[in-house]
Specification:
By secondary structure, the chain is of the alpha/beta class. The protein contains 16 helices and 13 strands. 49% of the residues lie in helices and 13% in strands. The chain has a 9-stranded mixed β-sheet with strand order 3-2-1-4-11-6-12-10-9, sandwiched between helices. Strand 7 and strand 8 form a beta hairpin.
């Protein structure tokens, strides 16, 4: 391809640090796009591996690839923002060095933004989860509640309350969506704390609309060593995002909360509408957290009292058996009440413990699993084995030991 003076319509900012393991696959997926009016701007954060050699090879191969190397590691957030600042296109997209795009990704997103009202500031496809080797794991089930109709059948619009309130919302597909560069420049971009991407997308949502396409065109690698699963302290994470945070206490929950309030304050909403959105931030941001901690506290009171009762008597603890019965009723309903009741009465105590342990392992309730371990310390070895046989895989997954994976370094 030949160089040209007119900027391409799409700029893809690819910040990277020590990404040799996956970078080539990511770049190949970009160069295979059916929409070709784009440039790839790689910001190398002073990598110490073969990242530089890979980038230079692709830059020599295709003139749409631009390679910029920072003289020092400036941190993840500044590197993301530099990748945006160096671009001069109508549309912009951040790209992680270990993710993959389907060939129609850009074509579909550019077409959507071209045809959509100017109030639509970002579009993002749905996500497919991959393992480190790039093998399919699942299709992400998340979908915003507001469906569009008519010409936009299959598209969904994301609401501000969904962004603020859903703690497990899969933000990466959104922050890695295609956005109008002019609108993104008006936000505070990526900041030095976990969750700043949610604050950025929330600010876009206050200024316009964020749409999700029906296409599963975004492939994200998930593995134990990626940046979303690093077992770092808040201080270490904050310094990883921005070295300027060194020695400073950064609490992600509070940082996100204050930044969401700032996003509302910076918006063009009227006074009453702004006040309503302040309320949304307070209720939806803190409500689920208060509920979760209250539920866990009540669970622990009930669990410890049940444990005490079961140790005083060799009979199966009634609260434990009742717990299994209620779970079965919730699953099967009243239509199977007699069979459910009969099954719970016949169940051995070890089976009760095993069912509770399995339920907790499925939900990833690590704090509750610790309580089941307490039950498992009963002098009767049968009960201990019943719980530990179920909990062993969950404990392994929690430590990130399910598969040997290379370290991932998002920047």
């Amino acid at each position: 391809m030949t160089n040209r003076s007119v900027p391409p319509r799409v700029c893809i900012g690819l910040p990277v640090y020590n990404g040799e393991a996956c970078l080539e696959d990511a770049l190949e997926s970009l160069l295979a796009q059916t929409y070709t009016d784009f440039e790839i701007l790689i910001c190398d954060n002073d990598s110490a591996d073969a990242t530089a050699a890979i980038c230079k090879r692709f830059a020599d191969r295709d003139s749409r690839v631009r390679y910029v190397r920072n003289p020092t590691n400036i941190g993840a957030a500044p590197n993301f923002n530099r990748a945006f600042a160096l671009g001069h296109s109508e549309y912009f997209k951040w790209m992680a060095h270990d993710d993959l795009l389907e060939p129609e990704y850009l074509e579909r997103c550019v077409d959507a933004l071209d045809r959509a009202p100017s109030s639509v500031l970002m579009v993002c496809p749905r996500r497919i989860d991959l393992d480190f080797e790039g093998n399919f794991r699942r299709r992400d089930p998340f979908q915003p509640t507001k469906a569009l109709h008519g010409e936009w059948e299959g598209f969904h619009a994301l609401s501000f309350s969904e962004l603020v309130g859903t703690e497990n919302l899969n933000i990466p597909p959104l922050i890695f969506g295609l956005v109008r560069a002019e609108a993104l420049a008006q936000t505070r971009l990526i900041q030095g704390f976990i969750g700043s991407d949610r604050a950025c997308v929330s600010e876009l949502c206050l200024r316009g609309q964020v749409w999700q396409t029906p296409d599963f065109h975004f492939n994200q690698r998930f593995h134990a060593a990626d940046s979303w699963r690093h077992k770092l302290s808040d201080e270490e994470n904050a310094e990883w995002y921005d070295p300027a945070n060194k020695g400073r206490k950064v609490r992600p929950t509070w940082e996100l909360f204050t930044n969401l309030l700032t996003a509302v304050r910076r918006s063009d909403l009227g006074a009453l509408n702004r006040l309503r959105h302040y309320g949304i931030v307070v209720v939806y941001h803190w409500g689920p957290r208060v509920y979760r901690h209250t539920r866990l506290a009540l669970w622990r009171v009930w669990a410890r009292s049940s444990l005490y009762a079961s140790r005083k008597s060799k009979a199966t603890s009634i609260p434990l058996r009742l717990w299994v019965l209620l779970r079965a009723l919730r699953r099967d309903g009243l239509r199977r009440l007699p069979a459910t009741l009969s099954a719970s009465l016949r169940m051995e105590r070890s089976e009760v413990i095993e069912q509770i342990a399995q339920m907790l392992a499925d939900r990833g309730e690590t704090g509750d699993i610790a309580l089941v371990h307490a039950w498992a310390k009963d002098p009767d070895e049968t009960y201990r084995n019943a719980a530990e046989s179920v909990l062993a895989p969950a404990a392994t997954a929690e430590r990130g030991e399910l598969q040997p994976l290379n370290a991932r370094a998002r920047t």
